């Protein structure tokens, strides 16, 4: 996780303090790392429902003639093929194919929204601002947006009666505009956990109404607040990327295993030529998932070996509360990417036996497909 020394509160910081959360600086904000414990909060999301403050994420508004075409050229996925009310996951790349960020794009009837990682917000805004063509309105709405996520198999029950019925019928990666606990909101069936859930975007002035409404509505369903610690273990069980760990400007979507977001049928997008060349020449390395045979946890930066020689490094690792064993991801030589293949992770002077497994690690979540 990426921390910053200059941390500002979110609209929900008072609630976090009142609940005894451990607060840490993250992406420029004062964020809750945990409330009760990472494992407890993790399992609450897997079995019931969790409430996340994710206001640190960045939101950009784009409108005007050519806005869709501009986004289409800026990211790897097919933006112009989206339906109104749809969101997509995509990468945004440099000309050399390195990943500037991974993000979501939302298509509204009259505008677009890009949701970027909080840790890369300033970089992303500068990157896009330098390329915005005439006629496209481009604004950073991060400071004007509060963002909460409700994730877990009981998420729909928590929101029932407090959002439009149509919101509860949304498919995964679909959204609508409506009222959430009396506040005008964008209600999106998206998440970063592998469970069913919703993300609610609304103005900070409605923070009290929405937070307190969620807490009250969620109490009968086991809803609990969840911090960044459990958010990280939840996403890793799904093999989801963490920017700065698993992907960055030195990695490409093809290497990271998110090549499905790269639509080469598009005649033009930033990084297309470099990515096409990489695809044609073959990948030298790939991001793989692995499980450890021991109880030791793999950590970011640990060397990965095969046959006694270094072949890569760990990018993310944790003890999986759902699977009750250590898991991790790391880049290794492409020839080694074989399910069931063996690796060794160097933890100080100890070699930890690892086995390559498919991602996601956790396959029994309630996420709507």
Q: How is this structure best described in words?
A:
This protein has 369 residues and is of the alpha+beta class. It has three domains: 13-54 and 145-236, Gyrase A, domain 2 (2-Layer Sandwich), CATH 3.30.1360.120; 56-142 and 252-281, Alpha-Beta Plaits; 284-369, Aminomethyltransferase beta-barrel domains (Elongation Factor Tu (Ef-tu), domain 3), CATH 2.40.30. 21% of the residues lie in helices and 33% in strands. Strand 5 (87-93) and strand 6 form a beta hairpin. It starts with 12 loop residues before the first helix and ends in a 12-residue tail after the last strand. The model has no long low-confidence stretch (mean pLDDT 97).
Average pLDDT metric:
97
The topology string of helices and strands comes to HEEHEEHEEEHEEHHEEEHEHHHEEEEEE
Regarding quaternary structure, how should these chains be classified?
A: single chain
Q: β content, as a range?
A: 25-35%
Fraction of residues in H or I helices: 10-25%
How far the N terminus sits from the C terminus, by CA atoms, comes to 28 Å
Shape: globular
CATH topology of the largest domain: Gyrase A, domain 2
